[in-house]
């Protein structure tokens, strides 16, 4: 189901069975590198692998699967890859969902969007830090400019009370991911570089908001791979809109707020 890993750069792309994740995995392959293509839904494995291998003229493909709505599967994937990989050159956290219209919780008890967009990538990234450190690698987190409208409500992070608003739920998840990216730059291993990025001029996860349901994502995918490359100068811990660094939300720049989120997350 997978090609043998070579001495080229190895890049893990999450959500390769989503539009942006697939386009990003394609770009990694086009550059001649090995992509570990993570999929959320095992039913998409064969189709995704065949589509990627059809274009793998130089790069190589390995397929892995973990349902981000089940943290046990995320942990299993993290432990497996950590044991197998001596080094990981880059991790591109592209897997993401829009908030559902109705209040929804996972089997783990967390609000669905918060778990898929933040808790799962946070846990996977932490598990892979030794491999990333060995490569002096990079972590690129796909966030959203809507993170600036988010709020971290520690009294109700899983949104069991109060009014449920999909945009607010989505913004919270992206705010948490952006805060994590910034913290990782400061507290992670030496040599690790992290950035968070809103990669397109429209909201990738919510095409219903505009007429972008089938908009091409080639430029967004190219940007993610570019930011993940070791030769690309970036602001470590920075937040980017497109290729330009810009100011993130106030909570992202607040070290005490980020420490509180990290403490809560690590307790899990």
Please provide a written account of the structure:
By secondary structure, the chain is of the alpha/beta class. It has a single domain (10-267), classed as Rossmann fold. The protein is built from eight helices and eight strands, in the order E-H-E-H-E-H-E-H-H-E-H-E-H-E-E-H. It has an eight-stranded mixed beta sheet, with helices on both faces. The longest helix has 22 residues, at 166-187. 49% of the residues are buried.
* Number of DSSP E strands: 8
* Mean of pLDDT: 92
| Number of contiguous helices | 8
Radius of gyration: 17 Å
In sequence order, what are the helices and strands, one letter per element? EHEHEHEHHEHEHEEH
**Biggest sheet record:** 8 strands, mixed
Here the CATH topology equals Rossmann fold
In the CATH hierarchy, what is the class? Alpha Beta
Percent helix, as a range, is: 25-40%
Oligomeric state, counting identical vs distinct chains: single chain
Task: Tell me the overall shape.
Answer: globular
Secondary structure category: alpha/beta
CATH architecture: 3-Layer(aba) Sandwich
* Domain module count: 1
CA-CA gap between termini: 33 Å
Protein name: SDR family NAD(P)-dependent oxidoreductase
Family: Belongs to the short-chain dehydrogenases/reductases (SDR) family.
Keywords: Oxidoreductase
GO molecular function, one term: oxidoreductase activity
């Amino acid at each position: 189901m997978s090609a043998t890993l070579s001495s080229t750069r190895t890049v893990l792309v999450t959500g390769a069975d989503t539009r942006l994740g697939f386009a990003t995995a394609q770009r990694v392959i086009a550059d001649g590198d090995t992509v570990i293509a993570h999929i959320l839904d095992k039913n998409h494995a064969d189709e995704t692998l065949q589509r990627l291998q059809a274009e793998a003229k130089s790069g190589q493909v390995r397929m892995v699967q973990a349902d981000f709505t089940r943290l046990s599967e995320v942990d299993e994937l993290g432990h497996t890859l950590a044991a197998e990989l001596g080094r990981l050159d880059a991790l591109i956290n592209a897997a993401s969902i829009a908030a559902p219209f109705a209040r929804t919780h996972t089997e783990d008890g967390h609000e669905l969007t918060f778990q898929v967009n933040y808790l799962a990538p946070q846990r996977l990234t932490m598990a892979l830090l030794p491999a990333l450190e060995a490569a002096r690698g990079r972590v690129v987190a796909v966030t959203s400019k809507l993170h600036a409208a988010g709020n971290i409500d520690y009294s109700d992070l899983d949104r069991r009370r109060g009014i449920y608003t999909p945009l607010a739920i989505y913004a919270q998840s992206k705010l948490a991911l952006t805060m994590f990216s910034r913290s990782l730059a400061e507290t992670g291993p030496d040599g690790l570089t992290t950035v968070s990025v809103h990669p397109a001029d429209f909201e990738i996860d919510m095409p219903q908001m505009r007429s972008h349901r089938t908009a091409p994502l080639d430029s967004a995918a190219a940007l993610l791979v570019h930011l993940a490359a070791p030769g690309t100068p970036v602001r470590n811990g920075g937040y980017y809109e497109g290729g330009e660094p810009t100011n993130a939300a106030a909570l992202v720049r607040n070290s005490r707020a980020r420490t509180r989120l990290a403490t809560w997350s690590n307790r899990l």
